[in-house]
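User: I'm curious whether this sequence folds into something compact or stays loose and floppy. Could you predict its structure so I can see for myself?
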Amino acid sequence: MGSHHDVVDEPGHPAGDGLIKPGYDDRLANTDLAPLKKQTWSSYNIFAFWMSDVHSVGGYVTAGALFSLGIASWQVLVSLVIGILIVMFFCNLVAKPSQVSGVPYPVINRAIFGVRGANIPAIIRGCIAIAWYGVQTYLAATSLMIIFLKFFPGFSAGLTSTTFLGLSPLGYLCYAILWVAQAAVFWRGMEAIRKFIDFAGPAVYVVMIALCVYLVAKAGIGNISLNLSTKQLSFAASIPVMIAAIASVVSYFSGPMLNFGDFSRYARSFTAVRKGNLLGLPVNFLFFSILTVVTASATVPVFGEMITDPIKTVERIDSAFAILLGGLTFVIATIGINIVANFISPAFDFSNVNPKKISWRMGGMIAAIGSVLLTPWNWYSSDQGILFTLGILGALIGPLFGILIAGYYLISKQRVWVDELYTMEPTARYWFRNGYNPNAVVAVLIGGIPAISVVLIGGVVWKGSGNVILSHAGDFSWFIGCGLGFLAFWLLERSNPRIRDLEGDRELATDGVGQ
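Assistant: Here's the prediction. I'll summarize afterward.
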């Protein structure tokens, strides 16, 4: 088996001091995209990554919302566990090629899509991240606005009386503060990001537990009902609801799941990745979900209504200290998920488009600037806005995932010739046809068009349907796209192989079998 070495972050090399070998084309390689010299992340670092990804306002609301679908609490928990186990299974699959080769998500795609074709999944994933980056920054800004309004009412009131392009001056101020804070952490590099997420995840847990204990004590434990449903369904009627809940969980994590290789490449072993995923997904997510439902349940006797948004919960507490601590915590939580899910991905993705001119830092800043230009505060509250932006782009995540998995495991037999990922020689293994694998491009269309159709039909035609599967059709687009993309690419490669010569120079290949 061929060997490679990976990276430690050093000043001047924010994403990792990659090893650029003689012969690497500068149109495909820079120190951020090259194979790492040293891989240092432990299972705790992967665990902390998932804590940052789960412990967000979006994660809280998603988990809490499932408890009001009309099914019993135990059925919700079963759905959450099944959904997150599916996520863990697929994360382990997508993590392996990047971990064993030491390259990020857009680069490993060159082995499937071609050295030029890999820009297709990179640009799609990057655009999704830009949109979500703006949304998450806006959500964090609302937490910061609560703090300003509570502690500086005179100053803040004067900044909320007018709006420009849909946002008040106070909103812009808070958005700018969060925008700069996130950029500062990102700019310091991957090691600084690792340290931040190592701190952020546990810190949010401390405050979440404190908030839960406070509300339970105030409500009285005997006054709390863990069944948040407003209606009761029979067991037969609850099955499709549970299926929809499972799909919602997988859909929620589909973005970071796709480019998880951007993080797994730093792990010291694939065993460390699997252990970190086990702790960070089923174990962590289940505990976080239970904490969420207990907290949401306690809001009923305390405030007279159920509140599933933690920001609004903290806002209702009549304590300046609680508002300050809670507000800052959810700001930290949102910064954490934003950096890991929506900053790092486009940094690698856009750098991959033109490594010679776009560094990792520049790629991330393109996403940050783009997020402002999208004015997310205007369309995030619009169902149609989300449907025709995130819905359509998100539907393509499934096909991209399925094609990568089919290409690496079924077609390439887990073998990657890492050095050939960085050459544009027409005779090279991953040149295919003009740098593109036509089978992969066709498979994106075969998987993507039906997935997009399901999102649009579900969001427009079936939106008000009484059938829970139809009304949640958009959440199934990932499974449809993934399955069709996987199957289409496998069949196309079998009928007209583009990925071939798996035995030639086998001693130079990085082989994932047995890892």
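Summary: The radius of gyration is 23 Å. The longest strand covers residues 415-416.
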